[in-house]
Specification:
The protein is mostly helical. The chain has helices spanning 10-59, 71-91, 93-99, 105-127, 133-142, 144-157, 163-172. It comes from Iodidimonas nitroreducens.
Length: 173
Protein backbone atom coordinates (compact mmCIF):
# COMPACT_ATOMS: atom_id res chain seq x y z
CA UNK A 1 0.00 0.00 0.00
CA UNK A 2 1.60 3.28 -1.07
CA UNK A 3 2.00 6.12 1.44
CA UNK A 4 0.67 8.62 -1.08
CA UNK A 5 -2.66 7.60 -2.62
CA UNK A 6 -2.96 7.83 -6.38
CA UNK A 7 -5.40 10.30 -7.86
CA UNK A 8 -5.91 8.42 -11.10
CA UNK A 9 -4.73 11.45 -13.08
CA UNK A 10 -1.36 10.55 -14.53
CA UNK A 11 0.28 13.99 -14.54
CA UNK A 12 -0.82 14.75 -10.95
CA UNK A 13 0.50 11.39 -9.74
CA UNK A 14 3.85 12.02 -11.45
CA UNK A 15 4.05 15.55 -9.97
CA UNK A 16 3.32 14.25 -6.45
CA UNK A 17 5.98 11.54 -6.78
CA UNK A 18 8.46 14.10 -8.12
CA UNK A 19 7.74 16.51 -5.22
CA UNK A 20 8.01 13.69 -2.69
CA UNK A 21 11.40 12.82 -4.19
CA UNK A 22 12.58 16.37 -3.53
CA UNK A 23 11.63 16.08 0.14
CA UNK A 24 14.22 13.47 1.09
CA UNK A 25 17.27 15.39 -0.20
CA UNK A 26 15.85 18.62 1.23
CA UNK A 27 15.39 17.10 4.68
CA UNK A 28 18.87 15.50 4.47
CA UNK A 29 20.43 18.87 3.59
CA UNK A 30 18.53 20.61 6.38
CA UNK A 31 19.55 18.02 9.00
CA UNK A 32 23.18 18.21 7.83
CA UNK A 33 23.10 22.00 8.10
CA UNK A 34 21.56 21.83 11.57
CA UNK A 35 24.02 19.26 12.92
CA UNK A 36 27.22 20.76 11.49
CA UNK A 37 27.94 22.85 14.63
CA UNK A 38 27.60 19.77 16.83
CA UNK A 39 29.93 17.67 14.71
CA UNK A 40 32.57 20.39 14.40
CA UNK A 41 32.39 21.26 18.09
CA UNK A 42 32.75 17.67 19.21
CA UNK A 43 35.85 17.23 17.04
CA UNK A 44 37.51 20.52 17.98
CA UNK A 45 36.58 20.48 21.67
CA UNK A 46 39.62 18.33 22.37
CA UNK A 47 41.88 21.13 21.12
CA UNK A 48 40.02 24.18 22.42
CA UNK A 49 41.68 24.03 25.84
CA UNK A 50 45.03 24.75 24.17
CA UNK A 51 43.49 27.75 22.42
CA UNK A 52 42.18 29.08 25.74
CA UNK A 53 45.66 28.63 27.28
CA UNK A 54 47.26 30.60 24.44
CA UNK A 55 44.70 33.44 24.54
CA UNK A 56 44.92 33.76 28.32
CA UNK A 57 48.72 33.74 28.27
CA UNK A 58 48.87 36.40 25.56
CA UNK A 59 46.01 38.74 26.46
CA UNK A 60 45.18 38.02 30.10
CA UNK A 61 48.37 36.89 31.85
CA UNK A 62 47.12 38.15 35.23
CA UNK A 63 43.85 36.26 34.87
CA UNK A 64 45.19 32.99 33.51
CA UNK A 65 43.13 30.02 34.65
CA UNK A 66 43.95 28.91 38.14
CA UNK A 67 42.86 25.39 37.43
CA UNK A 68 43.79 23.30 34.45
CA UNK A 69 40.82 21.50 32.97
CA UNK A 70 41.33 17.74 33.25
CA UNK A 71 40.99 15.80 29.99
CA UNK A 72 37.84 14.00 31.14
CA UNK A 73 36.19 17.35 31.91
CA UNK A 74 37.11 18.76 28.48
CA UNK A 75 35.75 15.63 26.79
CA UNK A 76 32.56 15.78 28.88
CA UNK A 77 31.96 19.47 28.08
CA UNK A 78 32.47 18.83 24.35
CA UNK A 79 30.24 15.76 24.32
CA UNK A 80 27.56 17.50 26.35
CA UNK A 81 27.53 20.43 23.95
CA UNK A 82 27.37 18.15 20.91
CA UNK A 83 24.59 16.04 22.37
CA UNK A 84 22.59 19.12 23.40
CA UNK A 85 22.91 20.65 19.94
CA UNK A 86 21.88 17.41 18.23
CA UNK A 87 18.99 16.68 20.59
CA UNK A 88 17.49 20.16 20.66
CA UNK A 89 17.87 20.69 16.91
CA UNK A 90 16.27 17.31 16.19
CA UNK A 91 13.42 18.13 18.58
CA UNK A 92 12.99 21.44 16.76
CA UNK A 93 13.09 19.78 13.31
CA UNK A 94 9.29 19.88 12.85
CA UNK A 95 9.35 23.59 13.65
CA UNK A 96 12.30 24.09 11.27
CA UNK A 97 10.34 22.36 8.50
CA UNK A 98 7.24 24.42 9.24
CA UNK A 99 9.23 27.66 9.18
CA UNK A 100 11.09 26.64 6.02
CA UNK A 101 8.44 28.32 3.89
CA UNK A 102 8.57 31.68 5.70
CA UNK A 103 11.84 32.71 4.14
CA UNK A 104 13.63 33.70 7.35
CA UNK A 105 11.98 31.68 10.13
CA UNK A 106 14.31 28.71 9.88
CA UNK A 107 17.36 30.98 10.01
CA UNK A 108 16.02 32.89 13.02
CA UNK A 109 15.22 29.65 14.89
CA UNK A 110 18.64 28.18 14.00
CA UNK A 111 20.43 31.28 15.29
CA UNK A 112 18.32 31.46 18.46
CA UNK A 113 18.77 27.80 19.41
CA UNK A 114 22.41 27.44 18.45
CA UNK A 115 23.34 30.92 19.67
CA UNK A 116 22.00 30.05 23.10
CA UNK A 117 23.59 26.59 23.24
CA UNK A 118 26.98 27.60 21.84
CA UNK A 119 27.18 30.70 24.04
CA UNK A 120 26.23 28.73 27.11
CA UNK A 121 28.73 25.94 26.60
CA UNK A 122 31.65 28.00 25.30
CA UNK A 123 31.24 30.39 28.23
CA UNK A 124 31.26 27.45 30.59
CA UNK A 125 34.36 25.92 28.93
CA UNK A 126 36.33 29.04 29.86
CA UNK A 127 34.59 29.70 33.18
CA UNK A 128 35.47 26.27 34.64
CA UNK A 129 39.11 27.32 34.41
CA UNK A 130 38.45 30.18 36.84
CA UNK A 131 35.77 28.70 39.08
CA UNK A 132 34.33 25.40 40.18
CA UNK A 133 31.87 23.86 37.71
CA UNK A 134 28.97 24.84 40.00
CA UNK A 135 30.14 28.46 40.25
CA UNK A 136 30.83 28.53 36.50
CA UNK A 137 27.15 27.80 35.87
CA UNK A 138 26.19 30.60 38.26
CA UNK A 139 28.57 33.01 36.48
CA UNK A 140 27.07 32.03 33.14
CA UNK A 141 23.58 32.83 34.38
CA UNK A 142 24.77 36.25 35.56
CA UNK A 143 26.23 36.94 32.11
CA UNK A 144 23.60 35.19 29.99
CA UNK A 145 23.16 38.14 27.60
CA UNK A 146 26.88 38.31 26.81
CA UNK A 147 27.05 34.52 26.50
CA UNK A 148 24.08 34.54 24.09
CA UNK A 149 25.61 37.28 21.92
CA UNK A 150 28.91 35.39 21.81
CA UNK A 151 27.06 32.20 20.89
CA UNK A 152 25.09 34.06 18.24
CA UNK A 153 28.33 35.24 16.64
CA UNK A 154 29.70 31.68 16.72
CA UNK A 155 26.47 30.37 15.16
CA UNK A 156 26.76 33.01 12.42
CA UNK A 157 30.35 31.94 11.76
CA UNK A 158 29.16 28.34 11.36
CA UNK A 159 27.04 29.54 8.43
CA UNK A 160 29.93 31.00 6.41
CA UNK A 161 31.79 28.47 4.24
CA UNK A 162 35.47 28.04 5.15
CA UNK A 163 35.10 30.29 8.22
CA UNK A 164 32.79 27.62 9.65
CA UNK A 165 35.81 25.33 9.95
CA UNK A 166 37.48 27.88 12.24
CA UNK A 167 34.32 28.91 14.14
CA UNK A 168 35.06 26.86 17.29
CA UNK A 169 38.59 28.28 17.58
CA UNK A 170 37.46 31.85 16.89
CA UNK A 171 34.55 31.43 19.29
CA UNK A 172 36.59 30.15 22.21
CA UNK A 173 39.26 32.81 21.68
Amino acid sequence: MPLIPESGIDWIDKAVIWLAGLGVPLIFALVTWLLFPAVMTSITSLFLDDVVDAVEALHYPDLAGWRASPLHEVIWLGLRLSLLIVLINLLALPLYLTLLFTGFGTLALYLAINGYLLGREYYEMVAVRHATPKNAGHLRKQNRDKAFLGGLMIALLFMIPVLNLMAPVIGIA
